[in-house]
Amino acid sequence: MVLTEFDEEVFRNGMKQEGFQEGFEKGISQGQSSLADAIKRLHLGESAEDLIKAGFDEVTVKLAIECK
User: Fold this and answer.
1) How far apart are alpha carbons 41 and 48 in whole angstroms?
2) What is the pTM of this model?
3) Per-residue pLDDT of the chain (68 residues; tens, 9 = 90+)
4) Pairwise CA distance, residues 47 & 50, whole Å
5) Cα–Cα distances in Å, from 41 out to 1, 13, 45, 53, 68?
6) What value, to the nearest 5°, has the Cα angle with vertex 18 and ends 15 and 24?
7) What SS3 class is residue 25?
8) Of 66, 21, 28, whose CA–CA distance to 48 is shortest?
9) H or E element, residue 18
């Protein structure tokens, strides 16, 4: 069995990259969910102003309107 040298900096950078990737993927998932929710609410008759008052950002609302 051959043991390799442990490089703490390489390990730390790998952990940072892994955390970044997980955060990035979570952000995408949350954005998709928010967009889908906004589209559904528009189909149910809510207005763009209603969505903004409910906490949706303007970019998501504009995109939801385009997708509707």
Assistant:
1) 9
2) 0.75
3) 566 777 788 778 878 888 888 889 999 999 999 999 999 999 999 999 999 999 999 999 999 999 97
4) 5
5) 60, 42, 7, 13, 10
6) 140
7) helix
8) 66
9) helix 8-43
